[in-house]
Structure formats: C-alpha cells, structure tokens
Amino acid sequence: MTKFPILYWPRRTTGDTEYQLARKVINNSCGVMPDVCTDDLDIADILNKNPNAVIYYPVFCGSTGWWGELLGSDGVVCDKLIISPECQLMVIESEKQVKPTGKTQLLAAEIYPTSGFFKKMNSGIATVADMLATDAGTILALFSGKNQSQFINILESTGNSYLGCIGRY
Comparing C-alpha atoms, which of 142, 12, 121 is closest to residue 65? Predict the structure, then answer.
C-alpha cells in the first residue's frame, strides 16, 4: 500500500532551511517529496479522505500543544524524525494503519494540577511530555509511558479523566 506524505509547515517557507531539510528527510524516508500544507490542518478530515496519508507535523523547540489537534481524530503519532536541534517531525498516521513498534506510548489526559499527582506520575509510571492549561482550570497533559492500564488506574483514582492514547513507539 502506497503511503501519501503530507508536510504541515505553519511557518513561512521562503528561505527556511529547516523546511528544506524536512522535505529532504521525508523524501529520503519514503522515496517521494511530500505535498505541503501551510493552512490550518484538519487531521481528522485528511485521514478520513485519505487513510494512506502520512502527516509530518513539525514541533519546534519551545513550542507546546502540538498534540492537541490529534484529540478527537483517529490519528496517532507513530514515529518522530529529528530534523535539527530546533525541530523534529511527528509522523502521524491513521490509527487503522499503524502497527505498534515498541512499548512507549504517548498518553493524553485531562488533570487537575496538584503536586501529588505529578509526583505519582513521574515515579516511573509515566513522564510529563507536554501540557496545556484550559479555561476550566484543568490541564490537558501529554505523558510518555509504558503501561496504559496502570496510567488509567492512577488517573481514575485521582478523579481525572483519560482522553486517550495518541501515539505508540
């Protein structure tokens, strides 16, 4: 089955060396230059219309919240490609197409910001990878962990809600 690469690039491409490097890395990885999307990205719509699409989503050093667009879609992060110290590409495919390759997963959850919760989570069950504050006073958090059921059990015991697994490595 032929994969269809799409590079999402929210920055100006003119003179952007990371953009050129990203296209080259994608071409080396899958043998074809990607289509480029510079407008707002609707991951659910793209994967719905083309289940063979592979979306390359850049995460720049210091940016947060890149994973929020995955919530509610069937897209999962299945790999990442390091472009430079300033940028890595998250490789996103339809959940229906992805086969888990390893044990580490990206786990998303809605939590209340209490220090006890973070001490529990960072004690080997999962590590905080990214967070976004909400207007409701909760935090949407992304964790990296190996045991999804243990992660969900701890979340539920602290009264928090689990949003889902958004990646597997």
Answer: 142
Residue 122 banded pLDDT, cuts 50, 70, 90: low
Q: Is the pLDDT of residue 98 over 80?
A: no
Query: How many angstroms separate the CA atoms of 103 and 108, rounded?
Result: 16
Length of the chain, in residues? 169
pTM of the predicted structure, to 2 decimals: 0.81
Sheet of strand 126-133, all strands in order from the earlier edge strand to the far edge: 35-37, 4-8, 53-60, 87-94, 75-84, 161-168, 105-111, 139-145, 126-133
Nearest to 71 by CA among 168, 167, 150: 167
Q: Residues near 157 by Cβ (< 8 Å), separated by ≥ 6?
A: none
Domains along the sequence of the chain with CATH: 4-94 (3.40.190.10), 105-168 (3.30.70)
